[in-house]
Structure formats: C-alpha cells, structure tokens
Specification:
Two copies of one chain form a homodimer.
Chain A lengths: L7 E5 L23 H13 L4 E4 L11 H4 L8 H9 L6 E7 L5 H14 L4 E6 L4 H4 L10 H20 L6 E4 L4 E3 L9 E2 L4 E2 L14 E4 L4 H10 L2 E4 L4 H14 L11 E10 L3 H13 L3 H12 L25 H14 L3 H11 L3 E5 L1 H13 L5 E4 L6 H16 L12 H5 L7 H6 L1
Parallel strand pairs in A: 1-2, 1-13, 2-3, 3-4, 4-9, 9-10, 10-11, 11-12, 11-13
Antiparallel strand pairs in A: 5-6, 7-8
Chain lengths: ~450, ~450
C-alpha cells in the first residue's frame, strides 16, 4: 500500500485548557476541574476520535509563589495515577499516559503503579519519564536544593533501568495458578533484581506480575543533549516542542539517527510534537478566537508565566518593551530547551514582553496552528509527510469544546485523507502505536 | 429511638480470599486477580449490601523469599490507589479505604493522591495509616535496615501531622473561580505549611484544593501502646484483631477512655474488628466448608506463614508437635500485637504447629465466626451490643462467592434486626460513618 502509515495522536489534557487564561474562557468548564464525570466525558470524546492516548503532564507545586499573578492562574492539578486509573474503568481502547518524575519518587512504587494500571486497563498504560527542576518542588520533599541538571539525568537513567528490571522480575509465563498442584507461580521464573547502583539499591521482585504490555509505553520529553541520547536508547514516544518545520525535521533526523547504535530501528520511536490548535469556521474566526484568548491574560499573570519559563524576574521591566539581557544557556539549570526556544523566538521576531507572553501563554513554546479544520489538517499533514513528526500531541486551548471541535471537525478530514485510523488497530496502546512487545531481560538471559 | 445506632461494615478485599489457601478453592476466581471487571462486580456487590467501605491492605514485597512455600501462595497484590480509583468510577456510595505506609512514602505524594481520590469519588476516600516492619520491604527502597518500632511510630505521627497540614493548606472557600475578575483562588486562603520536623521539611501548599471530606477518613490498625495512643488522638476508624469478647471489650474501653484527654468524644472513633465468616446453610455445612479450606493448605506454606507471623523459622520442627520456645515480646520488632495474639492462642488451646497454622491461615489472627447466616448475625450482634465493636471489617474466605453469600444471606438479617442500614444515610463516607467534618487548622487560627 502506498499510504498505509498513519499518524499517531495524543489528547493532551491540561485542564481546563492549555492556554494560560483558558480557565476564564466562557466555554471552559473551570468549575468541573475536580469532577470525574467531566473527565469521563472528555476521555470518551477522545476515544470516539480514535486518539492513541490521553496524555497528562504533572508537577509538584501549586504555582510559583503567593503572588497575585499566581492566584490568577490555575493552582490545581489532578494527580495522574488517580485520574488515569479512574478513566481506565470508563474507556476501552484509548491509551493512558501519565507523567511521573524520577527525581522525587521511588522506583518500586512507580514500577508497581504502572504495572497495576497496565493490567487493569488491559495494556493501555504509558509513562512519560521526566526529571523535576524547580527549587519549589524540592522544598516539598525535604530537600533544600534540587539536583543539578546532569545529576538529574543520571538518576533518571538509573531509575528507568531499575523500573524495567522490576517489570521483568516476573517472566511472562511465571504465573501458573495450578490449583491442583498448589503452584501459584513458578519460582524459577520470578527473579530478585538485586540492583545496586549509584542512586538505588533494590532487591525485588515486584509484587505484581509483568505488565500486560511487557512494559508500559515509555514516553520522554527532554530535548537536551543528555535527554536526546537517553531517548534514542530507551524512549518509544517523544513529546517535544518545535516552532518551525526546519527545527522539527532537524530534531527528527538527529534522534532517529542516534538509534542505530543502540540496535533500534527508527520505527521503534514515535516523535510527536505538541501542537496548539485554534480552530474557526473561517480563518478570520480562528484569528478572533486567538485574540480573544490573548485578551483574557491578566498582565501580571503573563509576565509571571514568562518569568518562570525564563527563570528571570521580568516584573520590573516595561511590558511593552523588549526582554532584558538573559543568562547564557549554560547558566540555566532545568528546562533548557524551553528557555532557548523562547529566547530564540523573541530575537527572531523582535517581540516585546507582552507580545512574547501572549505567544507562549497559549502553546507554551509548542507550535500554534490556526485556521479552519481543513487548514489545521493541512498543517499537521505537512509535518507528518516531511519527516518532522510521526504524530502530534494535541493541546486544545480550552476543554471540553476545544477537544470536541478537533474530534468533530479535524479528525474526519485526517481520516478521509487516510492519514489517521478509522478504528483502533490493536487491543493495547503498544499495538496501536505500532511498537513491539519488549523481550524480558531475564528470559533472554536463559535462552 | 431505642435502637437507632447501626453497625458499620467494611468489605475487606483480599484477593482471591482471606484464607491463605483460598486461591485453590474451586469457587475462588484466582484467574481474575488482575481483571478490572472482577473487582468492579465485587465492589458493586458490596455497594448493593450497603457496606460502608471497601478496605484494601497493602505491602511492598512479593512474599517471604523464593521458597517453594512462597510459590504456593498468592504473590500478587493489586496497588490500592490504582484499584480504588478505578472502582470510584463504577460505584456511587461505597467508601474506598486504602492502606498506605508512612515508612517508605512521601507525605506530599500521599496527601495529594488521597485528596485527588476524595475529590473524584465525591468524598469517599479513607486512609489506613500503617508503618512497614519487614526487612524485605526495606530492601526494595534502598534501605539496609528497617526502622525500629518506636522510630516508625515517631515518623508515622509526624507524617500524619504534615499530611493534614497539606490537606488544610487550601481553606474550604479558597477556590473562587471568578472569571470576570481573574481570580482563580483567594491567595489569603492558600497557605504554605512550612513544616520543619525531625523527619520531614515541607513547604507546601498542596497542588490540589482541600479534600471533599475535609480529610479523608483516617483508619489505623496498630494495637501496641504507641499505636493505641496515636489512634486515640488521631484515628477515626480502628481496624483491629481480637479473638474473644473479653479482649475486645477491654480494648474498646481502653481506647475510648484515652480519647477525652485529646478533647474527643468516644463516638468520633469507630472500632471495627476484623471477622472471618464461614457461612453454611447448616452449622455442619459451615464446619465442612472450614475443614475443606484447611485441607487446601500445603504443609510448607502453612509452616512458612506461621514462621513469618512469629518471625521464627519453624521449618525444622515437627509439624504435629508444639511450638518451640519463642522470643519475648520485647525482642520482637514489628507486628507485636499479632505475635502476642498467636502465641497466646497456642498456649491457651495447647495447639500443634499444624493446628496453629490452620487456625491463623484463615483469619490471620482475626476472629473466625462459623455457622448459618442467623448464627453469623448473632455473633456480630453480641459484640456490637456489648461494647466490643462499633462494626466489623468483613473478611470473606474467598471471592467473589464469600462476599456474595454475606450480602445475600447475612445483611438482610442484620437489616431486619435494625442493626444495619437499609440505605446510605449520607453522600460521603464520613457522613455514613457518622463522623464530623474536620475544622481546617488554618481557618481556625484566624477566628
């Protein structure tokens, strides 16, 4: 078949919307931010749209301090395991991708919770592996200073390594359940992992059998040098942020090119940049929708958001003037990629502080696409067909209507063009993404 | 009204059954141990029976080593947060009580997950606060030695303390959601907690608003001196194990008597001993059912279970002979109460090792009640009406039929005798248990 490769789509739930002022939008159901029925309806909408997965970001603070600006933003974040598990009970096909940091968690707990979610959902779990970078987060975990960028990656690498050992600690056929012979499991197929590393010392085995997918799908986001190398070796999905086709193509080529040395084929990793779609019945209506969202940003909140992205306090600079001189990339500890992206954008387009916060407060550094459903589809198609993306993480400006509009108006166009599935191909997330079932490292050793 | 006090009932899900050999029982759905539909059906059965709550135990090991005996037992344990959250989406009234240890967890994560579960379930979460005592568990968390008993309680007390601070960090009316004025929350009603203690140093606030119940219901199980004092001060439900009416009455009186000095009324804490009901259409059928369960215990598994409860290797002693000399209570680190209970039982009834493992492998130290549905109801009524219990945590021998039998045959008798509710009284677990809504410590300070 000429065109049997289909794009992969994630429905990135940031509630009540990806735009920083989304919660003020009349259509955003801000009052439902803690209501299960609201999330259930959206999950079922995404499943009706045949999305590969729901994607949840995470963080361990209520905001960036007790400022007025902070109180103008959403300070509540639903916990990913709790939400995804509840949604597993009211959906059947869609994947459930949760962000969990390797910086302030224990591998045993993380391995176990994902294994449990993967079993209960019949193979629909995915783990977005991140590191935590904020000082504020450190102070919620009895730590004075957060780990330096390079140490965070060391720890992350060891963390993922030991989690996969724990998932493998039960071989695929270890559970026997022979009632007559009184054999619940085969003890020769359940293994201690006896991991002793720089960060962790973990005996195992896990107290739950191997996940339904072998491993839940591994998602990563980092785009720094260390992050790219880790992703090329271990990631199965990359969630990333690029503004231009050229940047995205360069990244795509770079990452896929690094995989061979780890014995992996380029198809074993799906690159899915985030996109922020602003849809209108006409191009003009889409522009109006965007302008209306921008008008909802309180000035203090916009400046505070930009300050936090750049790790520089901008509150004393004229909002309609240019950015002050910024620190060099080497001086930045954490979220280096976003820092560079925003700095480059300001320089490239010569933007004021206000213009810049308006630009980043929607897509937060991700690609913004505006227009009619046809135009939205065209922009996705362009990247998909030009080796810039294997799919996209869709970031609706506000919920639930931003998602509903995408499912109702954009998905059918992608399906008509044979760019997106009509039905789920497999029964697990791994199968729908076209990823292979991972070999168990303990089984492999004995072959 | 003469008899308006009703007993409280928990449905203790230990899957596929509370009896150590339950998984071999022909009626136990052992093959469904990872199947959400199986748990969903049982949760809905418990809710049909108007149980106050589903109760889940927990632990962080796959068993007690790589022995044959271990492979004869259930080595898989569903993770409480993941399971309870999934069940919250398919039930409406029943409480969701999960065990989470204070020894190997972080207060911020625990506070947040319970808050999220409490919100999504509309006020049905409960936290069974325990400490971890096993060496094996320590080795799954990069620790060489587990904490001594007294230190575990120190840490537990500080842990609960900081978790309640985090739950209170958003006052009840902190969330405003004023779209016009751009006020998501009132910054004067969201508080850092700035906790600095021996074990934890946590800034806060939490990144989710105060739980629907103020606090999820606090359950405790420890019956040691330190555990009793902590419970009298902070617990709202006690899950405990007693064999005789006299012991249970003494404990009931002891605990309730300790509450006044903390400014609490005896009604603010519900004492719910575990009971293991073996039901038959006749007394003889119940006895046969019990004998059949006992016949399913592999000798090695029985000895291993008893060894682990007593922390003494019994495998070299004749199984039909008496227990060897045991260490004194002071030498035992962890689960002291269960140790004493089993030792006392062996001495009181002069039991052999085999008889003893048969006795403890069902109820594991809890009260075993056998007989017709009428006789089961009588035994519950006796304790309930004689100040030995405010209710019971029901531990069916095997699932789902052990639970189904209780709901179908015992609950109607309790209802007929006006000992148990016909309908849920309130909309939250706290309301159904007759517990008051906790005052927010930050709000209280400003009055």
């Amino acid at each position: 078949m000429a065109n049997d490769k289909k794009m992969k789509l994630g429905a990135f739930f940031m509630i009540p919307g990806h735009h920083v002022a989304a919660w003020r939008h009349p259509k955003a159901e801000t009052h439902n931010i803690l209501n299960l029925n609201f999330y259930k309806k959206m999950a079922q909408t995404a499943e009706r749209g045949k999305f590969d997965m729901i994607f949840l970001a995470d963080g361990y603070t209520a905001g960036h301090g007790h400022s007025l600006a902070n109180a103008q933003s959403v300070g509540i974040r639903m916990e990913p395991f709790i939400l995804l598990s509840a949604l597993s009970a009211v959906t059947e096909h869609i994947g459930l991708a949760g962000t969990v940091s390797t910086t302030y968690n224990e591998p045993f707990h993380v391995a176990r919770k994902f294994a449990a979610l993967d079993h209960l959902s019949n193979g629909r779990a995915a783990w977005n592996v991140v590191t935590s970078s904020g000082e504020v987060e450190a102070r919620n975990f009895s730590k004075d200073h957060h780990l330096l960028h390079s140490k965070r990656y060391d720890r992350a690498e060891e963390f993922v390594n030991v989690v996969t050992k724990l998932w493998d600690s039960w071989e695929d056929d270890a559970v026997i359940l022979d009632k007559e012979e009184a054999q619940f499991y085969d003890p020769s197929k359940v293994h201690t992992v006896n991991h002793k590393g720089e960060w962790f010392s973990i005996e195992g085995p896990l107290n739950i059998s191997r996940p339904a997918q072998g491993y839940p799908v591994i998602v990563q986001a980092g785009s720094s040098e260390a992050g790219k190398e880790l992703a090329a070796r271990t990631a199965e999905v990359i969630f990333t942020a690029w503004q231009t086709l050229e940047e995205a193509q360069a990244f795509y080529k770079d990452i896929k090119g690094r995989m061979e040395k780890y014995g992996r084929s380029p198809d074993e990793l799906k690159i899915m940049p985030g996109v922020f779609p602003v849809i209108g019945r006409t191009k003009e209506e889409a522009e109006e929708n965007k302008a209306f969202l921008e008008s909802l940003i309180p000035e203090e909140a916009g400046v505070a958001l930009l300050s936090s992205h750049l790790n520089v306090d901008l509150s004393s600079y004229p909002v309609d003037g240019p950015l002050p001189d910024l620190p060099s990339l080497e001086e930045v500890n954490g979220a280096k990629t976003r820092f560079k992206l925003i700095k480059d954008l300001a320089e490239r387009e010569n933007l004021t502080i206000r213009q810049l916060y308006q630009r980043v407060s929607g897509a937060r550094g991700h690609r913004e696409i505006k227009g009619t459903p046809e135009q939205i589809a065209n922009q996705l198609q362009e990247w998909f067909e030009n080796e810039a993306a294997d799919g996209f993480n869709i970031m609706p400006p506000y919920f639930p209507d931003g998602l509903e509009d995408f499912v109702q108006h954009v998905i059918p166009i992608l399906q008509e063009r044979k760019l997106f599935r009509e039905e789920y191909e497999g029964s697990t997330l791994r199968e729908n993404l076209g990823l292979s079932y991972p070999v168990n490292q303990f089984t492999r050793q004995s072959v």
